Amino acid sequence: MAAELEALLELAQHDAAIREQALKIEGLQRRRATLVEAIAREQNEFLSHKRAFEELQRQSREKSREVDDLDAQIRADTEKLRTGLLSYKEMDALRVRIEHSRARIDQLEDEAIALINKVEEQAPQMKKAEEDFLKWKSKIDHEIAQIDHEIAAHTQTWDRLKRERTQRVEAVDPKLLRQYEELRTRYEDPMAFVHHGVCSGCNLRVSEITVERVRSEIVTCENCSRLLYVK
Ligand SMILES: [Zn+2]
After folding, report:
1. 212 alpha carbon to ligand 1 midpoint, in Å?
2. Residues 27, 84: one domain?
């Protein structure tokens, strides 16, 4: 193989290595974004459950307080009825109020107990859901940290390869380099080898003459224009 073609092939292999690093970094970044999204989604779901449970706790406390308040009122009314200097009309009104309050407190107590039971029933589920979420999140956080580590390593390699590329470029004939760079805007692999008369870039057959010439000169594929070489 001609020395200038060899230098170009080395550059092409170098560019392929750079591209490989870039693809790895891209893949890792995509994976990372998916995980970050999953955490946000799971966290939202967990928080909405938690808020619903906290709302239930609040309702339960409120209902119990209502029972306590009404109970205190009944006691105060009863005491007033016993000791107060009231007119017959006032006493009658107070008795009616106490009667109503007693009927109401029974209903309120039932509601309060139902809410307390509901809270007690859901509390262990909520605790388990929180534990599960935190355990899962810590696993995912760990995976993200690992990905960040891998991205950093690949970025370092990518940087080094980019720097080394300058030297490889200097070794290539300028005219050939221009041709290569022009092809690189079209193809990820601007160089192709000929095997059994077929170009490895476009998988099409090249002419007999090209097959002959590729051994001694710099030729391009007549179909895809890639620079050709033989292995
Ligand atoms: Zn071709």
Report:
1. 16
2. yes
Last residue of a domain, one of 140, 170, 200: 170
Calculate how far, in angstroms, residue 167's C-alpha sits from the geometric centre of ligand 1: 28
Which one-letter amino acid corresponds to residue 116?
Answer: I
Cα 225 to ligand 1 centroid, rounded to whole Å: 6
- Overall domain count for the chain: 2
Distance 190 CA to ligand 1 centre (A): 10
Q: Look up residue 205 and give its DSSP letter.
A: B
Asked if the model's pLDDT at residue 219 lies above 90, the reply is yes
Distance 20 CA to ligand 1 centre (A): 22
> What are the pLDDT digits (tens) for 122-164?
999 999 999 999 999 999 999 999 999 999 999 999 999 999 9
* Distance between Cα 184 and ligand 1 center (Å): 14
Range of the domain at 151: 3-170
How far apart are the CA of 209 and the centre of ligand 1, in A? Answer: 14
pTM for this one? 0.77
Long-range contacts of 39-46 (CB under 8 A, 24+ apart): 39/137, 39/140, 39/141, 42/133, 42/136, 42/137, 43/133, 43/137, 46/129, 46/130, 46/133
